């Protein structure tokens, strides 16, 4: 579906507090086509808006962990790991201009693919990046120069997707920036324009200004169901899709933290990375560690029933939600891999009993929309 052709405003008074998909195999979003890579596995999805479209893998490799705050990574090991992910079918990489060397690593990786892999793989590889500018005047030359930096670092003529973030909604310069990005798309410098961490109200304003965006990347997990409360309905009405991050909460949604006592030093796994610390704060806002343990036990029961891991269940549950096209799983390139767990996502079908048990466990927590606000508000509130 194309962007709004008329300035129509939607109201959300009828949206329930929590909405979930009962059908574990259906993608509830308009104008989406799914490409089967295996008989029973939907690895890929096509995001589309008007004449713009982009195929991505439904499980994306998130590269925030290359930013340096997780410790040093070896460049050669990291690129080799990216090649293994791509060879295994996980060929969509998500990065940002401020994720340390992420864009540079992608540039090295894509050149390796060009030289060492068949053309069929190169056609499937996607590099999604983000632009997170300071709130300066968004002139055409400033936007162009900024995007050219990412193009050079990633060594591509045209960025597959540019996801745009804006810090301060009181500054309407985000509309100017998006219009200039759309111009660059028309010039072939960018293939598709998207958003990250925009709320429902601003997404609607952007679409009313006839700026075609394919997706909005937002925090979304079994704990954080805010995107299903307002954002998903607008996405259904307009064809915009959701790409989710924080879906395994930096690893907190895993067996590693089941029955873990994090209050006693050295008694359990440490909350010692930016992602673990970030999502631990989400757990605190949602209901606290003890309540979270109840959720983990529910997820472990579902996981054991299907012979998979807790992270596999966590990602599948979010992928089954309304308007969700893909979910991010962070990669510790050269240090650990999640290829096996990610493959299991595509064969996992959560039945009604599974969904109901997860719902019951999450319903015990607080409504994060009331505690934090809409998607992205965690970045804009003191």
From TrEMBL:
<dbReference type="Pfam" id="PF00248">
    <property type="entry name" value="Aldo_ket_red"/>
</dbReference>
<dbReference type="InterPro" id="IPR023210">
    <property type="entry name" value="NADP_OxRdtase_dom"/>
</dbReference>
<feature type="domain" description="NADP-dependent oxidoreductase">
    <location>
        <begin position="60"/>
        <end position="361"/>
    </location>
</feature>
<dbReference type="InterPro" id="IPR036812">
    <property type="entry name" value="NAD(P)_OxRdtase_dom_sf"/>
</dbReference>
<protein>
    <recommendedName>
        <fullName>NADP-dependent oxidoreductase domain-containing protein</fullName>
    </recommendedName>
</protein>
């Amino acid at each position: 579906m194309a962007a709004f052709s008329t300035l129509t405003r939607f109201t959300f008074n009828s949206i329930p507090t929590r909405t979930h998909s009962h059908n574990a195999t259906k993608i509830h979003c308009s104008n989406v086509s799914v490409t089967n890579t295996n008989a029973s596995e939907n690895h890929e999805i096509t995001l589309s808006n008007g004449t713009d479209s982009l195929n991505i893998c439904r499980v994306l490799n998130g590269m925030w962990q290359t930013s340096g705050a997780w410790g040093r990574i070896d460049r050669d090991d990291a690129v080799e790991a990216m090649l293994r992910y791509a060879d295994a079918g996980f060929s969509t990489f998500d990065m940002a201009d401020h994720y340390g060397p992420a864009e540079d690593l992608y540039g090295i990786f894509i050149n390796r693919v060009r030289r060492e892999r068949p053309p069929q793989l190169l056609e499937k590889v996607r590099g999604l990046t983000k632009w997170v500018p300071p709130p300066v005047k968004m002139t055409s030359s400033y936007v162009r120069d900024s995007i050219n930096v990412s193009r050079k670092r990633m060594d591509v003529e045209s960025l597959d997707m540019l996801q745009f973030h804006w810090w301060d909604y009181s500054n309407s310069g985000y509309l100017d920036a998006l219009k200039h990005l759309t111009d660059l798309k028309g010039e072939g410098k960018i293939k598709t324009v998207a958003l990250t961490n925009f709320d429902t109200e601003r997404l609607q304003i952007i679409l009313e200004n006839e700026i075609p965006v394919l997706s909005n990347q937002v925090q979304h997990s079994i704990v954080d169901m805010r995107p299903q409360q307002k954002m998903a309905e607008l996405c259904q009405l307009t064809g915009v899709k959701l790409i989710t991050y924080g879906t395994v909460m930096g690893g907190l949604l895993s067996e590693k933290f089941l029955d873990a006592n994090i209050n006693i030093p050295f008694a359990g796994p440490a909350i010692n990375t930016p992602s673990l610390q970030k999502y631990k704060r989400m757990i605190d806002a949602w209901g606290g560690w003890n309540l979270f343990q109840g959720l983990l036990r529910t997820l472990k029961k579902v996981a054991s029933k299907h012979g998979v891991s807790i992270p596999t269940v966590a990602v599948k549950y979010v992928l089954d939600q309304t308007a969700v096209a893909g979910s991010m799983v962070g990669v510790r390139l050269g240090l650990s891999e999640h290829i096996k767990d990610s493959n299991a996502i595509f064969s996992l079908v959560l039945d009604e009993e599974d969904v109901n048990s997860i719902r019951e466990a999450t319903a015990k927590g607080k409504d994060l929309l009331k505690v934090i606000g809409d998607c992205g508000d965690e970045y804009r509130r003191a």
